[in-house]
């Protein structure tokens, strides 16, 4: 059993007969009253996000997980197929376990958290950013730059990302996987 002082991003816990991963947390010590921890939890079974507050010292049941490096192979409907890079064992995961499946490129390496008690995959941690090629982008209109104007562009995985007007088809761009937003243009 762990307590609220052990809470950190990425920790998996059992709560309300489900397994949750802590996405965000904030220790709060108000001037009046006891301290508490405000958390944002994501269910690893259905992907729903839940806001919860734990009082200081509250006992939480931690789930033991092991992280393994997997390579993304290919999609098949709502299933995504991965291969363990050490044992070459293949697994299939449902689309809702992934944070941003639209940004996952074939051959990409990810970290898969596996519950040590049941040997079931719990979550997939993608790299912080991915570099993808733009396959379709509307042409930017000259003189349309009074503010930070953006346009939508389609990348090689099929995802749509808002990009600045100067991005064209064939450009490679870096995308933040947590927010799905444009970061910068990558030069070869």
From TrEMBL:
Residues 67-122 form the Translation elongation factor P/YeiP central domain. One of its GO terms (molecular function) is translation elongation factor activity. It is found in: Cytoplasm. Coiled coil: none annotated. GO terms for cellular component: cytosol. GO terms for biological process: peptide biosynthetic process. Its main location: cytoplasm. InterPro entries: Elong-fact-P_C (IPR015365), NA-bd_OB-fold (IPR012340), Rib_uL2_dom2 (IPR014722), Transl_elong_fac_P/YeiP (IPR020599), Transl_elong_KOW-like (IPR013185), Transl_elong_P/YeiP_cen (IPR001059), Transl_elong_P/YeiP_CS (IPR013852), Transl_elongation_fac_P (IPR011768). Pathway: Protein biosynthesis; polypeptide chain elongation. Residues 130-185 form the Elongation factor P C-terminal domain. Keywords: Cytoplasm, Elongation factor, Protein biosynthesis. It comes from the Bacteria. The keyword Protein biosynthesis applies. Involved in peptide bond synthesis. Stimulates efficient translation and peptide-bond synthesis on native or reconstituted 70S ribosomes in vitro. Probably functions indirectly by altering the affinity of the ribosome for aminoacyl-tRNA, thus increasing their reactivity as acceptors for peptidyl transferase. PANTHER family: ELONGATION FACTOR P, ELONGATION FACTOR P (EF-P) FAMILY PROTEIN. Belongs to the elongation factor P family. This is Elongation factor P. It comes from Flavobacterium gawalongense. The gene is efp.
């Amino acid at each position: 059993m762990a307590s609220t002082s052990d809470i950190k991003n990425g920790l998996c816990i059992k709560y309300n007969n489900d397994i949750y991963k802590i996405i965000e947390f904030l220790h709060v010590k108000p001037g009046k009253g006891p301290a508490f921890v405000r958390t944002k939890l994501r269910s690893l079974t259905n992907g729903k996000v839940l806001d919860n507050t734990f009082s200081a010292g509250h006992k939480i049941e931690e789930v033991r997980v092991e992280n393994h490096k997997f390579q993304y192979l290919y999609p098949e409907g709502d299933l995504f197929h991965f291969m363990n890079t050490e044992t070459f064992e293949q697994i299939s995961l449902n689309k809702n376990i992934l944070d941003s499946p639209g940004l996952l490129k074939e051959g990409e390496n990810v970290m898969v958290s596996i519950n040590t008690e049941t040997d079931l995959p719990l979550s997939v941690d993608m790299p912080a950013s991915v570099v993808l090629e733009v396959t379709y982008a509307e042409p930017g209109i000259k003189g349309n730059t009074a503010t930070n104007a953006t346009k939508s562009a389609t990348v090689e995985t099929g995802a749509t990302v808002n990009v600045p007007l100067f991005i064209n088809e064939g450009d490679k761009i870096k995308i933040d996987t947590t927010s799905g937003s444009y970061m910068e243009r990558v030069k070869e």
